[in-house]
Amino acid sequence: MTNNTPNSIIIGTAGHIDHGKTTLVRALTGIDTDRLPEEKRRGITIDLGFASLELPTPNGSPLRISFVDVPGHSLFIRNMLAGTGCVPAVMLVVAADEGIKPQTVEHLAICEFLGISHGLTVITKADAVSVSQLQEVTRSIERFLQGTFLFKDNAPVVQASAATGAGLEAVRAELLNLAVRAHHVTSDALTRMPLDRSFVMKGFGTVVTGTLLSGTIRDGQTLHLQPDDRSVRVRGLQSHGKPVPSAQPGSRVAVNLSGIDAPQVRRGQTLVSPRTLSSVDTLDVEVRLLQSAPALKHRASIHFHAFTSETMASVFLYGYEAVQPGSLRLMRLRLAEPIVLVPGDRFVLRQPLPAGTIGGGRVLDTHPQPRLRKSVTQGWLEQLRAASPTTQLALRVSRCNASGIALDALSAETGLTLDAIRLQIGPAIESGDIHLISNNLLLSREAFDTAAREITTRLQTGERVKSSQLRGQAALSHPVFDFVIDSLIHERKIQLRDETVSSYDASVPTSNPESDRLAAIAHAYEESGLAPPSVLELAQQFNIKETDMRRLVTTLQRDKTIIRMGSDDLFVHSAALSRLAAQLAPLRGSLMDVARFKQLTGVSRKYAIPLLEYLDRQRITIKQNGQRLILSKP
Length: 634
Description:
The protein is an alpha+beta fold. Helices cover 34% and strands 28% of the residues.
């Protein structure tokens, strides 16, 4: 183990009824997760239980392991699904005296459908069988695990006894190893916390609990509860049993809410940041059926489980032939109740009668375009399902055609933060494959070319057309129309005079203040070198509205006169970048840190870091251990 050990991890249990999941968790943590009177009376787990322990790691930092203990009885599989839907890793429990049983098989299949890829297997009740029987059941479990994620993860099979304590230290050691393997923290996703419990705490009021999937929740923050879109305020937080000022992704969180009563909150609802994610009821998905499942027909009604939510769903197949057992198919699901979901989310499908898990899959799109032919949608989904994250964003921009898509709408559609989208889509904007209009609207190159052809075609007669009339004929929004017109004027394909537009004619004198402005702004960028002013500062300098300045800056960027440095506010003239590359050429093969780069260029850190990142992208430099190796000219 190295210093990449996380501070905490959540691990779910899985396994057949009475195989000792709750007893093992109690032996590890000292906490009995069976809290309901009926659970005590019947001696079985009915609902979700929670426990945690703290282990010292070899590097000296503490690791908090939280367990979500799930019921093993088939009658309570919906509760098992609610508990397993938010965990990154699982502890599969198999009793030595019984071996693999039906719920062992179903629970493992559910974990695979939910995309869980890390875990370990514990054989409990090792003291209840002979040594030879223990060896035989171990071999049978190892054969059963072949081909599953537990086999691919090189997950160990540990023998233990909660009654005698034998093997518990080995389990704890493997839990530490599992924490490192399953540790994946990302800041790219919007805040989202599916709820699994709600109760009233005396003196505090409404308290909800869940696993924070992504983002951060802070004390005093305003959140929205979906699907009701109800505003609530955080008046206190606990994570792993301790008060905290903020909660980080991947942790168990208890949130004290004001503005809502406990009976108004239920399992399956989701806390999100205001004006970000909303619940949806129509999904395009890919589904894989189990080999043991019956064929799934068009318009079938099934149970849909995702995270802590459960609802009925109607199946609409792309291609009406039934989905055969073991096959993978695209389909549309219409949910009876809306759920907060984003592309990439995993889910499980169960049939009502006879009750049982039949398959599961991955969400591809939660905002399907209305009134599109099925063949068009299916072709787009086929592209999307195999595309890289960056290409997926480009596909979403492209399908919006000339309407384009706003950055915040794309964020809500994908579940990604604005910063993550800007970072991923930045190279496409730099190359001109995607246009950023007025600092907010994204338009594909194909849509721009189509709109430009529409305008130039209508002007081929040589007549002058009023700008407003031409916009109506082309059916373009104001921002897109203005952007295309500015670009065509800059390319000398059309000309604008007295609010009328015509094809470009060099013999016709025209007053084009836009061209003069563009030239002046380009000159300002060139004069400023590697330390350019912000867009707002330029707008103030030229006494132009910021929105108009951003439109002009976008035109210069599209023409590659200026180059975006990864921020919507920082652009550098291409001539200044060429001079920088020439300045670095004699230093080829040497290493340079940020301080030396600042000394060479005379710029502050504000400009140095974006410039170095640009040089990395252009393969002029490459980052090595915090320094840059200066390469040959690309």
